[in-house]
Amino acid sequence: MTATLTAENTAPVPVLRVRDLTIAIGAKKNPKKIVTGISFDLIPGRIQGLAGESGSGKTVSSLAILGLLPANASVGGSIELDGTQIIGMGRRALNDIRGRRIAMIFQDPSSSLHPQIMVGSQLTDHVRRHLGLNATDAKARAVELLTRVRVPNPEEALRRYPHQFSGGQRQRIAIAIALACDPVVLLADEPTTALDVTVQAGILHLLKDLAIERNLAVLLVTHDLGVMSAIADDVAVMRHGAIVEAGLREQIFGAPQHAYTRELLDSLPGAQNAPSAHGLAVAALEDDAR
């Protein structure tokens, strides 16, 4: 499935537009500026990477999209979902969007999944609230989702608790929950950082497949340019709260223009005995293409 096109059938239409986003946190008299005016688009079927070291402002930018910043944060600029302004939106309206129109995958599935609630309840409660499904249909939906994200024995998995799964399987369950209500935007904040390299590759492969299959607009936030180079279509590099370089993946990795981008690329591990997540993910994608 391809991205939605304009009337001229030439350019994809973003489902989410971020313009001149600013974020400051702290007392009003002397707030700390975290993000200083960034802009990017999320386009259906494409993965937009947001890269940068810790403290660059990339994670708080993604949290601002869902209105999940702390109470002492001030946000300026514009975030529009299909033309509707999110900044300044009330809590009830935001709750209707969260999970239903925009979903998020967090870095650590151990903290994003409730440890004392069975996986089935975490999936079915979600779809019953947003989609109005009855218990039978919600369970069928949960089995379908777990099957799609390749969690083994999905019907049995519904009756288990998060601690009974491996880290990679927990992240797949978190992805299933994020997809449960067919969102149009998926925010992925360091989704593979807590996983070993071979498991990372499987998660990256899954995210790429889902973006294409479901025409999802994906924001991939990561400090790892190896991960970014594996699946992002477009890349924006952040430093000190600003985007210093942005473009197609091939441009950013093949001919970086900014000194900071070149520094990040130079810091990537060279040839090693252990395979990289990037190499494994690319190999998996190439296998599927054959």
Describe this entry's structure for a reader.
This protein is α/β, with parallel strands linked by helices. A hairpin with a 2-residue loop joins strand 4 and strand 5. Strands 6-7-8-3-9-10 form a six-stranded mixed beta sheet, sandwiched between helices. A four-stranded antiparallel beta sheet has the order 2-1-4-5, with helices on one face. The C terminus is likely disordered. It is built from twelve helices and ten strands.
Q: What's this entry about, in short?
A:
InterPro entries: AAA+_ATPase, ABC_Ni/Peptide_Import, ABC_transporter-like_ATP-bd, ABC_transporter-like_CS, P-loop_NTPase. This is ABC transporter ATP-binding protein. With 290 residues, the protein is an alpha/beta fold.
Descriptors:
ABC_transporter-like_ATP-bd; 290 residues; disordered C terminus; single chain; 10 strands; 6-stranded mixed β-sheet; 4-stranded antiparallel β-sheet; alpha/beta
Nearest-angstrom radius of gyration? 19 Å
Question: Hey, roughly how much beta strand do the residues contain?
Answer: 15-25%
Given the helix and strand composition, which structural class is it? Answer: alpha/beta
Largest sheet: 6 strands, mixed
Question: Residue-averaged pLDDT, rounded?
Answer: 88
The percentage helix is 25-40%
Uncertain runs are 271-277, 283-290
